[in-house]
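Dear all,

This email documents one entry for the complex benchmark we are building for the journal club exercise. For each entry we list the sequence lines for every component of the assembly. Then comes the predicted three-dimensional structure of the complex as a token string, followed by one or two observations. Please use this as the template for your own entries, and keep the labels exactly as they appear.
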Amino acid sequence: MRKKIVFLALLSIFAFASEFVKLEDGRVIMLKDDGRYEEVTLINKGGREIVLKGDGTWEELSQEVPVVETVGVNSAQKRAASSKLAKSLIGRWESENGAFVYEFHPDGKMRIKSKNRWRSTTYRVDDVNEERRNIVLNVGESSRLGFLSIGGEHKTLHIEEDNRTMHDESYRVKYLRDLVLKKVR
Amino acid sequence: MKFAKLSLAAVMAMGVSAFADVQNIKVTGDAKLFYSTTDANNGDLFDQKSSAGQAALDVAVSADLADGVAGKIGVTMLNTLGLENNLVSQVWDGGLSNQWWVSEAWLAKKIANTTVKVGRQTLDTPLAFTETWSIAQNTFDAAVVLNNDIPNTTLVAAWVGRGNGGAGAKYPILAGVVRDASNGQDPFATYSPALSTYGQDGAYAFGAVTTAIPMTTAQGWYYNVEDVATAYWLQADVALKNELKGLTLGAQYATLDLKNAAYDDGSIWAVKVGYAMDNGLSFAGAYSSSDKSTLGAGWNTATGTGASKIYTEAWWAYGEVTQSDTDSFTLEAEYNMEDVADFAAYYTNADHATGDDMTEITVTASKSFGSLETTLAYINTDKKENDNMVQVYLTYNF
């Protein structure tokens, strides 16, 4: 009987904790039994954490609200964008014959020159593999639906050890040529 | 109830972890509406009888899968939107009926300096390539191996089993880049429609592209269309940026050796000089000459459109400059006003030893409105008669 009480107590704590989660942007969400969810307000009163619900009621929490990650998107992107390899992108990269130019700006904007035609677009670092020195760049994304990126293209770029030589792996797979760009500034 | 909810959460977590190896999922596509009208054959511009129109939808999903494998699958759909009821009498490509097909479905894996790409894919080689000028593009069932073990050099080996390359323009098809996929029929058949009367067992291509020579991109390719033909392509492009920034020179040479003893083999050479300024203005001039043969040389063996990567290729009238015993030259000027519009003018002359010579003048204006790309083209072709053509290209990218 004692074991059963302890088990149910632990289960209720665990289950209770799962009702409230904190998103990475700070919002607190209450997961309801009927499958719906609701954004609530979390306040701290005298060391106690209290949730203010939309229906005018409140509830004291017995433990800290767990922070959850938005699956596969924000946290990974934050880590990728802050990597040293990704930061080495900023600047102007040119192919030897000048036919291709990639210009990366710190504000997420970039200019691409291809076959003497310039276009302005946006970029975001979606993934970085430091070991292989590969960066997956999300160029020209128009919208995002959860983990689905819509519009534009993903470019896989390989940066050599010198941090001044780049190979556009996506171009290679599509056009069967090794597009090499050198950092000129 | 809470226990049940936890179980569901666990199942969801398991589901998420199962997809954890699928990353960088990208959904892309475009919707196109192309229109063309001509006064050829005693027709009138904008008259239904002398106009073509069609809509297309391309949707593709690409992703990085487990173990470093990348993949993509894409679908192309063609639809007349009922334009044939009162505005047009031709379609651009495929067939008159609504149709769809899987245009891309490939996996690629890189191991050390070697990349293997297998499946339905686009190809960009000089004598077997995907044409992107029409409303639909031809693709290939192929396996490609790329290797970069030699510094500054890419080695390519490709096997092409099938393609959906069309037989070229033939009423009521204006472009004919792809085969008809109406009524669910498989448009992927033998390799080359232009050579299909002989039957094929696929084609092989081997190439090397190198930048080992300073300022120069050199490439050499060998093709073997089984039991039908072999072909070579040599090309060197030099960027003389130390002498004059923006100045480029190029030279090409291509052959087509047919297995049929009754046919004469063909070859073509071409040279080009170009100059591009930092302000977006660029000029180019090119000259080509083909020797006397049965089928000419240098054209895309994957379709019957006659399109080629020869420097002198016309903007619209493909197949003229690569014909047998033909001397051609082209002049072009392009002006890219970044974030404003692009303007271009092209002049091509093909002087045939036999048959009517061809002269083409094309003027284009292109502008992007956010995700919508628009191009307006005017084409004047002088051959047996003097024809005018107006085309409108609308492409919405998403």
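Observations: The domain at 2-397 of chain B is CATH 2.40.160.10 (Porin). Chain B is about 5% helix and 50% strand.
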